[in-house]
């Protein structure tokens, strides 16, 4: 009897335990009001379309939650700093809109206070990786303008709690002329924390450069002012930079819900990309790379970084020209840095075993002295003009309003590019971001006129001259897409490379030497033979002859068909 009872009790306890475990797993990691919990997940965030894929992956450990440090350790961490007073001094008044000041729910953030446990969102294999015992230490650089005290403090405390103490040389705060100087100054009472205040609003780019210039460690780590770093976030990044100082590395950026502050794991197979308007977006790793990834802890090459959270060797940062300090307030600097790193001999990667949470917002909670749109255009125009070579035309077609807008002098940055002997943007397109498609040029049709006559196709593959008011105008309609002279799927081609050879139509192939032409004065020269398209032949078909552009039979005047 007794044994049977014991077994029954154990069985019930086991079932209850299992249910509790599953229930825990489905709960969001933090416990704010439940009504708003679901909303944060699928929401479209500004600039983060890829974040639609944000989900909890079953490949990651579901239940392990970082342990908050022991009470004694906390006292150690923040000795000399009155956390309660710091947070209490700024409280939301009843009836105030909690989203107004910061574009996130301040009430939920304040409710969490200076620290909290978050789920370890890494792939389980990350936990067994090891790192060098002698990693160099880093200076953490955080710029902010009117950040909420609770988010700023959690950023700092999460760094102190979840990093090996020896790796944190210092935390440099750059207060970008926030309304209340005490937001920053009081935090300098925390050991290792320094506070620099700008005497006027500079924007995040010049602020970061200021921080980097006073940093004393050999490695720089940049963070936004509303982050929470996760378990062992720092070691993977410093390790990669120690092994090769030209690598610039960033973590997977998890999502902290702007509504309820739930910490949500981001998808582990995204990288940074952009479209021709220089709009940043998260995108899936190309399928071939995804297939080739047998080890989920391996770095992911990325064409661009999001911009806010990365680790870079300080000498490399300085050698490559820091940032373009003529960029203002916010935006575009991540493209400029990314192009520069790749084109001037470095690389960019995302490290899946490093995770940092960030509060993604849908609007800027601060003002732009020159307006949001003009500032973004100025900054991205500078990036395009300095780094994108002939590809900048696609930027201007995608963002016509950028044309004619002021962007200052770029002479210094062009000099820098020359001095560093950087590769052309074409190289970047071919080797780093071949997935970025060059836009299809809109078809432009012309007739090719010789005197009063027009070039036209005849029969299956022939060419000839006829009255321009032909009965079948389709056969006189040409697309001049250098080096091809094209009509539908057929292109003008020579039949042999010698003078007098017949010219005919054949299926287009831009790699076929027989089809390559370029304009030479009024004539059309075959690029390989050097001979010119000529209408003067005994048979009435077209041929190639020695170029004499003055000659009427070699003169082809393109005239747009409107
Ligand atoms: O005038 C300003 N001065 C500042 O110091 C304006 C802003 N800032 C600070 C601000 O307090 C914050 O710490 O700069 C940081 C970034 O500004 P956010 O958080 O308002 O903007 P964001 O999160 O959209 O910023 C992303 O894009 C920026 C483009 O210039 C920067 O590259 C940010 O670092 C970048 N943030 C991230 O990459 C984190 C992940 C988000 C993504 C994608
Ligand atoms: Mn941010």
TrEMBL record:
It is found in: Golgi apparatus membrane. It is a single-pass type II membrane protein. Residues 441-559 form the Ricin B lectin domain. Signal peptide: none annotated. The chain crosses the membrane at residues 5-23. Its EC number is 2.4.1.-. Residues 37-49 have a biased composition (Low complexity). InterPro entries: GalNAc-T, Glyco_trans_2-like, Nucleotide-diphossugar_trans, Ricin_B-like_lectins, Ricin_B_lectin. It comes from the Eukaryota. GO terms for molecular function: carbohydrate binding; metal ion binding; polypeptide N-acetylgalactosaminyltransferase activity. One of its GO terms (cellular component) is Golgi membrane. The gene is LOC106527170. Its cofactor is Mn(2+). The lineage of its organism: Eukaryota, Metazoa, Chordata, Craniata, Vertebrata. It catalyses: L-seryl-[protein] + UDP-N-acetyl-alpha-D-galactosamine = a 3-O-[N-acetyl-alpha-D-galactosaminyl]-L-seryl-[protein] + UDP + H(+); L-threonyl-[protein] + UDP-N-acetyl-alpha-D-galactosamine = a 3-O-[N-acetyl-alpha-D-galactosaminyl]-L-threonyl-[protein] + UDP + H(+). This is Polypeptide N-acetylgalactosaminyltransferase. Pathway: Protein modification; protein glycosylation. It comes from Austrofundulus limnaeus. Its main location: Golgi. Keywords: Disulfide bond, Glycosyltransferase, Golgi apparatus, Lectin, Manganese, Membrane, Metal-binding, Signal-anchor, Transferase, Transmembrane, Transmembrane helix. Belongs to the glycosyltransferase 2 family. GalNAc-T subfamily. SMART domains: RICIN (SM00458). Residues 30-49 are annotated as: Disordered. It is an enzyme of class 2 (transferase). One of its GO terms (biological process) is protein O-linked glycosylation.
